[in-house]
Amino acid sequence: MNYLLHLLIYLDIYIIVALSLNIVVGYCGLLTLAHAGYFAVGSYAYALLTLKLGWGFLPSVAAAAILSGTLSLAVSLPAWRLREDFFVMASLSVQALIFSAINNWSKPGEPVGTLANLTNGPYGVPGVPRPDIMGSVFDTIGSVATISLVLAFLNLLVGWALLKSPWGRVLQAMRDDELAARGLGKNVRRLKVQAFAVACGMVAVAGALYASYVNYVDASLSSLDHSILMLSMVIVGGVGNFRGPVVGAAVLIAIPEIMRLLQIPDTMAAEIRLMAYGLLLIVMMHLRPQGLAGSYRME
Amino acid sequence: MSLPEAHFENQAPIDRPPTLGSVVLRAEGLTKSFGGHTVLDGVSVDLRKGEVVLLRGDNGSGKTTLLNILTGNLEPDSGQIQIHLNGTDKVLSFPLSLWKRLNPFTGFGPERMAQLGVARTWQDIRLFSTQDLCNNIAVAEPNQLGENPLWSLFRRRAVFRREVKNVTVAKLMLASLGLIGREASSADRISLGQSKRVAIARAVRAGAKILLLDEPLAGLDASGVEQVLELLGKLADDDKVTLVIVEHVFNIERILGFVDTVWSLDNGQLRVESPREVREEYVPEEGLGPVLWTLKVAGPGGKANQETLPGGATLTIAVPKVGSSPATVFEVKDLVVYRGGRLVIGAEDASGVRGLSFTLKEGQMAVLQAPNGWGKTTLLEAIAGVIPIQRGTITLGETEVTCMPSWKRAGLGISLLQARNHTLPRLTVKENLSLARVQRIPAAIKPLLYREVSSLSGGEKQKVAIACALDPPQSAIHLMDEPFAALDDKSIREVIGLIEQRISRVPALVAMPGGST
């Protein structure tokens, strides 16, 4: 039972991740590799606010979302001018910047969370507390699963309300033909800033949820591999609608579990998993470029 | 905003009475150069409320450059643009200072010009392809409450009410364009004429008081031309929208009866003329309809065989008089092509689906004239192997090519000139010609050899595309999709000459819109 609840929590976290990435990739047509960086920003913000300042779960999650949304300017401002491959490179540099900052912001001997040793470098931040809402600590796996389910549902609701609104429509117009959208008086720069802020805010919520469940955060959360895993979810599942990211998150969460069932030795499992992801991406791009359940075909 | 009634009648446009209002846009001393080549040299113009202007000029004269500048898509090197619309006066002086360029509130760009009431349409239409027609128009409404994500979340009721109104207006506009019941159609599933009218309606919905149209009649059949002209007439007369129309030489005679002023661009200078002056100097080309052209190609003693195809298309084949029976060079038999479940090539009757069949022999040229949406491009692409076919055979000489991929067909000599995007824009003209293995470079292209194709005007690009398609030595048949698009009078004559010269050796199939002359 605990195993299933564990899977449910991971599924909820990555549904939020894929849904947020879908706003940028599926609705704006901007392929970003920096998303794991913002996931890590959310995780660390939550970890430090709860550990060092003793904040509760909800204010910490809200602050993590606001911080990540604000830092999203690092990718949304380059998106004003850069497109396609050049934008991907810019987002990669933001990812590298966040990873380097987290991995190097440390000083031996200084307490974790101080200005000198904010992230504790490669050692990460252990002992992140479980969710604490108005004095009630959700320290069982079942209670964390409930919170993650509620948060995933809320994110789905927010995403649905936004993307089914005129805002979602104008994002799609910008994706289809940016120049034509500008010719109708649409401020595409503002739209890009808004889309990245919303997406990075949402992924920070997922990051905070992850930190509260695993009780430990480290720099690998902001790694390029993690960004590619997130991107694989939306590409495999499909973008431009709601089903795609959910399906993608489920498929990519299921792959390592299937390998576990096949009893592949731990020494080989990681490599085989990466090969499976790569193979899946190649097959999808050839046979179904719009993803398993997507409605927009990435070019 | 009112648009024409749902019903359109095919009637020739009549001269409009001059009822012009105040100046709404004034451009002074606009200059623009590309790589040392001056395209606009101190151009000054006035536009008045409700005025309809025809902007004309030869290929490369700077029509599109001026259109791009007036709509914020290109910054001039110097000059000034004054806009007097919606009760505000705005002056934009060029070159812009660094601060103005960086400041999103004072900058110069298409969104800024659109917000001031200056919008445009594109020759390649640019509807939002993944959205339906209703949303294509609804998205254009300016200052929508729901375009703010915070209001979309926290003022849902107000956003919903506003959206219902917006969608209702969009549906009414579609109804007035004769597109009742097509609200949910995807923008890439309607005919060219319908797309052009939706694009115009979308610009009007965005609040355009000055609308600049880049070849709004290009590629349209006769009824499409009438429908677009009627829509434009209503906009100018009823809504007092100022129109600037860049139009192709084919349609200038039709437009002259419709415009108040003509702007003629030549060597970077703009001359303002009246339509009457232009009409007096304008000598229409001898009408070269498909029958006349094919008769000319057939030569003395030859004939033009005309066959009516389903869907209002005609296939006219020039058959020269020759002593012995010429060999069959190309044969299409029982060809059936579906696109997205829709039968495009072929006809359905009680006995089932009948495919398209025709043959071309040595020295013959076929002109396929069909209305927009008939499937001309589909037919040529199917023959070239770019898209799959569902039934039939295609034979080149003795070789059946039906199952061959496109590159093998090209290797055997099936040469396709696509209607657009036929050149490689990031390469120079010389590199494009080299890739196409062109041996004799036409004189008109020699001055352009070292320029990047993306920097050429529409007409110049088309000339390069035609040179690439017509000259390769291994060609066995030429398939040409609207080869005269975007060309001026002189260039059309040159291209006709080139085609006639080539088909003495290699047959050609030329697709043209219905109603072209």
Could you explain how this protein is built, in words?
The complex is a heterodimer of chains A (299) and B (517). Helix content of chain A is 69%, strand content 3%. By secondary structure, chain A is an all-alpha fold. A two-stranded antiparallel sheet of chain A has the order 1-4. Chain B has 517 residues and is α/β, with parallel strands linked by helices. Helices cover 31% and strands 27% of the residues of chain B. Chain B is built from 16 helices and 23 strands. Chain B has helices at 63-70, 98-102, 110-116, 133-138, 149-154, 156-176, 192-205, 222-238, 249-256, 275-281, 290-298, 376-384, 406-412, 429-435, 458-470, 489-503; strands spanning 23-34, 37-48, 52-57, 78-85, 88-94, 118-121, 210-214, 242-246, 261-266, 269-273, 303-309, 313-319, 328-339, 342-345, 347-349, 352-354, 356-361, 365-370, 391-396, 399-400, 414-417, 477-481, 508-513. Chain B is globular and about 75 Å long.
Overview in brief:
Chain A is mainly alpha-helical and 299 residues long.
